[in-house]
């Protein structure tokens, strides 16, 4: 099972504050632990939303709004992709994420959708979806 | 609520068991005993955690519980005093030391455990069972289900394996330099065998047992973390990541196998492919491009890089099989070489090479020989002969799904 572990933003991450050396060390050690346990597939930290943008949809209309965005708690500051046996295992790992400053924050764990989960899709629809994904990924990979 | 706690204990077990067993084995110098102590600690956890909640540091809790039990046991044994001192000393250290400071030590213990579980005094079956049990954190029941044998058989295998290790006086250590390569290749072989058992289930109704593939991939990644300078470990990781990337595409809507060239490549897992290619690059950068696993990884990488089957670089694949036949010669490699030659230079050339293998005793019962021959004959328009070959192949496979596929191909000739 694949899970995305989402680190929520807070005022510091949104302000683009650099993590302290202590934080970097502890996170580095934790990432190494995840990798050594064979469960870490990928992980990245994100720049503050002030460097991002949103595209709003309404019918045919597309409206682009530049960051920053205000609902700090709903924003994402980074993620890990983990491959584990169960939600419980993902939870066990997330409980071990270091929190050296002791500040309040939250981390959300969400299972990654795979095509097997789309029960209502016909085989034909799934094929189209896969085709699009592959083209997408091929573009992303150059 | 009790089920939740149980599942949580199982999750902790999966994360902690290998390190727990490895750490205990260093203390008691007996992996069999270490494993039993760890199991006992797990039972205590199952009794206590549902009531009191999961401790903040579950790994340390389990270790303390297991050590207390070890002290009880050793108290009853002759060399009580000396052993007790050893354990007491270790216990003190472990309590004060921070987990991060002990990473190197844990890695050493884990490596010793890997080499002990795959020790040559054990049969391959026993190595597989011990590795899954002690390093993969699988229960006897899970191993039994994965290999379609009764649980009692697996339990017996493990008991016998532990006895064999004790009887042979196998030391809990990483092998010395002079035998290290040979020992490492048997470790890699065990992990690859576990993966393959999941990837092409040799018997039964399922074509794949994905959980077993995931366990093997995880073990390979763990090993790469423990031995980052060994190119062949990265070669194995690369091979497994790329093969695993195709898992979904290998099964049709009704559970039937889909051959490589017929697979919908959009279903290949691009994340695993990228990881596999990175691991291959690592193996090569460490000077291991010619190792058997790295070469096999380079072959699967050729497929992974081809957006459509027509883009496959068969000439390169044929060359890689030739390289593989030098470092790991086998009739099966020859057969694959023939397939690649057939794809690169035409079915006549391929068939010529396959025909040379027909008398090969090692391939007498191997269903892929007639299957490949049937495929080449069909491409040459020799349908009647092809049909006979597909039927022969169907008669040889022990996998139901594959048999059906081969009979369908025979009928289509």
From TrEMBL, chain A:
Family affiliation: Belongs to the YciI family.
Enumerate the InterPro entries for this protein. Dimeric_a/b-barrel (IPR011008), YCII (IPR005545)
Record protein name field:
YCII-related domain-containing protein
Occurrences of domain YCII-related (ranges): 1-113
Locate the coiled-coil region(s) and give their ranges: none
UniProtKB/TrEMBL annotation, chain B:
Give the UniProt keywords, A-Z: Coiled coil, Sigma factor, Transcription, Transcription regulation
Classification via Gene3D superfamilies: 1.10.1740.10, Winged helix-like DNA-binding domain superfamily/Winged helix DNA-binding domain
- The RNA polymerase sigma-70 region domain, residue ranges: 20-78
Q: Name one GO molecular function term.
A: DNA binding
Q: Where is the DUF6596 domain?
A: 183-283
**Coiled coil spans:** 63-90
Any Pfam family matching the protein: Sigma70_r2
Q: Which GO terms describe its biological process?
A: DNA-templated transcription initiation
Query: Residue ranges of the RNA polymerase sigma factor 70 region 4 type domain?
Result: 115-165
* Family that this chain belongs to: Belongs to the sigma-70 factor family. ECF subfamily.
Q: What is this protein called?
A: RNA polymerase sigma factor (Sigma-70 family)
What organism does the UniProt record list as the source?
Saccharothrix ecbatanensis
